[in-house]
Design goal:
The chain is built from eleven helices and ten strands. By secondary structure, it is α/β, with parallel strands linked by helices.
Length: about 290
């Protein structure tokens, strides 16, 4: 039997699968560094039997009639409320002030950009067409047509865009999603000890960078400080819905629908003893 050709990112949970023949089964694991160019090979050429794929790429491929099937196995995930950033010495901008401005992104159709545009629209009323999106790469799905608000930069890579925007260099870099970004940071002159990565485990050995972002941020001291702010009413966490533990499946279905505004909470406390959490007001967001 011909082994399955499988391409997965380098994560702790996939590393063991690749290194243990019994777990990996009759598979031939191939590599791509960075990972995202393999997405285009998959949806254009069906180059692999099994391939990790960005959610946006999968949805566009299905819409274009590419014969791919989604497996319910999540490789990596994250929220993207912090994926839109500005240079440290740039002007302070609220989401509403992005209207009429230019925003750089590797590819307009990549998943990070998709989430950012959705957040800007749903939470701040800023339409994607209100912004000019400057890209360095074409979409993974060949049939996808970019809207009129997209402009292709002559810069060949995101690193070139950043270099043009920050000619004096970049002081620090946090890679929270995706692979290949650590190499960009090193190329831009960021010292390895100033780089913290969540997603690119091999970059730790390759460049000597750190991989302790969550441990360094979510310290007991910070959790205690946040709890105190909540108790004083200075920080509000919006609770969308509270489910009893026996309704855990419905709670997960609600999360999967991606239409919640706030947190989904599982409670061990009987409803008549539970504080009034659902519907709590959120802190106001600047527009």
């Amino acid at each position: 039997m011909t082994p399955l050709t499988v391409l997965l990112g380098d994560y702790p949970h996939t590393r063991r699968l690749k290194e243990t023949p019994v777990l990996g089964g009759d598979c031939r694991f191939v590599e791509s560094s960075p990972l995202y160019p393999a997405f285009a090979h998959m949806v254009r050429e069906l180059a692999y039997d099994v391939c990790e794929l960005a959610l946006a790429t999968y949805l566009q491929a299905r819409a274009a009639g590419v014969p791919v099937t989604l497996l319910p196995v999540v490789m990596i995930g994250g929220t993207h409320h912090r994926s839109l950033t500005r240079l440290p010495d740039g002007p302070h901008l609220t989401p509403g002030q992005l209207v009429g401005r230019r925003v750089g992104v590797r590819s307009y159709s990549q998943t990070t950009g998709l989430w950012v545009r959705g957040i800007l629209r749903e939470e701040y009323g800023v339409e994607a067409s209100d912004i000019t999106w400057v890209t360095t790469e074409e979409p993974h799905v060949a049939q996808y047509r970019e809207p009129a608000c997209v402009r292709r930069s002559q810069a060949g890579r995101v690193a070139d865009l950043l270099r043009a925007a920050a000619p004096d260099g970049i002081d620090a870099f946090v890679d929270t999603f995706g692979q290949g970004n650590v190499d960009i940071a090193i190329e831009l002159g960021v010292a390895p000890q100033r780089i913290n990565t969540l997603a690119d485990g091999r970059a730790v050995a390759r460049h000597g960078v750190r991989s302790r972002a969550q441990e360094d941020v979510f310290t007991p001291q910070l959790v205690a400080e946040l709890a105190e702010l909540v108790s004083k009413g200075l920080l509000t966490v919006h609770i969308s819905e509270v489910y009893p533990l026996e309704q855990v499946q419905e709670a997960y279905r609600q999360v999967q629908r991606r239409h919640t505004r706030g947190k989904i909470v599982l409670s061990l406390v009987p409803p008549d003893e539970r504080p009034a959490l659902a519907g709590e007001l959120r802190a106001a967001r600047p527009r």
